[in-house]
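Hi L., both proteins are below.
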Amino acid sequence: MECFYEGPNFLVINPDECIDCSICVGECPVNAIVEASAIPLDQVHFVELNQTLSQDPRWTRITSTKTPLTEHEKWREVKSKLHLLQK
């Protein structure tokens, strides 16, 4: 799907473009993607953040598969990364 957008150090999904097919849920190497119906209440605010950032013209639509970053495993267990987001 072409509903993913890439910023300096973060990926977002445009919730209006996502068709909720759930294919990306299993493909995410760090389990950061969940089905819309399974978003924990303490993370619902990320839907709005994804919406906002995906509409920022500086964020680029991803149109082809990319290799996970080499350090993706390191970030899997790190909680509270929002302060690192570069807009």
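That was the first. Here is the second:
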Amino acid sequence: MRAPENRLAELPTVAIVGRPNVGKSTLFNRIIGRRQAIVAEEPGVTRDRQFSTAEWGGRSFLLADTGGVTDAPGSSLDAAVRAQVLAAIEHAHVILFVVDAREGITPVDRHVAELLRGSGRPVLLAVNKVDEPVGSLAHLEFYELGLGDPVPVAALSGKQSGDLLDRLVGLLPATGGDAPPGYDVSLAVIGKPNVGKSSYVNRLLGEDRVIVAEEAGTTRDAIDTFVELEGVRVRLVDTAGLRRQSRVETELEFYSRLRAARAIERSDVCLLIVDVAAGVTNQDFRIGEQAWEAGCGLVLVANKWDLGEDRGPDVHAAFERELRDRAPFLRKVPIITTSALTGLRVRKAAELALQVHGRRLQRVATAEVNRYLAELCARRQPPQGPRGDVRILYGTQASTAPPLFVLWLNRPKDLPRHYLRYIENGFRERWDFLGTPIRFRLKRREESRR
């Protein structure tokens, strides 16, 4: 398994670096053309490396947003941010160094410039927050950093961003293809804050791809990583922890929650990480239901299984029974116990998610659907409705991801929900739709037209 910088070597990588709150994430969003990275007045919002593809002038590249670097880290978390920036520099082909024209050159800027001069990478110096870049002299003092011609830009309004990108693509290496990276399946790692999502991702990747800290809520953006697993190209998304709505107090947390929700919506399968040591809560179930209702495949990953004194087969079976009794939708979802700390079944959980994705794409022939539908109806007739007998006349699978079946009935509005659940459970058992929701659409059709 390889990290994105190695696996997608055909695309050059551009890393955006600089001290906190100079507008790196604003520029990142401007270049990729959408609000992917969180932007807030609070400094230090971006902590992990955030990747996205970008294109300018016929050239495609990977753009990496990084946390703000400091010259004298005052905590372990600041040190981790600095390590992320250095990691981005190590794997980047071009460095986009962002500074703040309004504050001028600071000691931290000098420190970052020194790091970059020693990196051996081409560096483009972007002087941000120049409201009227044309004719401005605000960028001239930054020649002192010794990184070539500084480019004035206003990331918020987009002024001079085209000139900046022209300069940027001119620094990209000529080798390698320009096709944007593809992937076969998108897996989102979801769950409450501090249950071990980032630890799981790092263990699966075999490197410290995302920051892990005791502080709850360390991951704030939905972080995309491209990997290859069992020959399958995977986009792996480590999301911000989803708190109860009543605890989402700040604007920053609101946007983190929003991005995590969007990560669920654009994913094929979600790995729901729960903390066995702390106990599984109703909030864990609500997060799982959110993914299930969005049509995602789902695998429940019971993390920190190594912390229990007795974790034998009987304990495992009792644990699964308890979860499924508390949340009935989990009766349709595979449950696997893991330990991100020791690596126990970490890879197996991801492989299980790929199996669920295969079930999600499964298509059943119409003739087979109707043969089995007739068997189910013969075994247990639909209940009589208020206007007479309810008959299921015909069925077909209309689409996949998630599977959607269309049933034609003489009185679709009179079919009880419990009978539709009976049909769903029969389909699930017959065709092994483990871990994926099944959708039904009921349509009216007269028996005489069958």
